[in-house]
Amino acid sequence: MTHTLFSRLAIFVAAGFFCFIIWIIYLANTGGGSIFFELIRYIPYGDKVGHMLLFGLLTFVANLALQSRHFLLGRIPLYYGAVLVSIFVLSEEISQGFIPSRTLDIIDLIADAVGITLFSYLSCVTQRYIDKQRQ
Fold it and tell me: What are the distances in angstroms from CA 97 to CA 71, 106, 112, 115?
């Protein structure tokens, strides 16, 4: 698979996954039900694991879609995809403080940050592998 085709596929997957997350947020904000909500109730710390995986996976595909473009903060690379997801997560989590059916929770933010950090690392490893295969 060519690099351009892989990047386009990653953009498509990232956009689709973002739409899925928007749908989940809509359901949560309106008090709607979903099989996903039922599933996480049966998993210990399911809500926190869900936050970590949802936003971690979004970070992973966003980083790959943006071809792991990054800038340096000191010696630490910050991926544009991770920064965009972080801004989205922070604004979404803060908005929960204004929605009666939702709860603003710092532990959710920590779970989000863990997912974003972990999956940023995984996207870095994946991008190195992709680049190595291109050579």
Answer: 32, 11, 17, 22
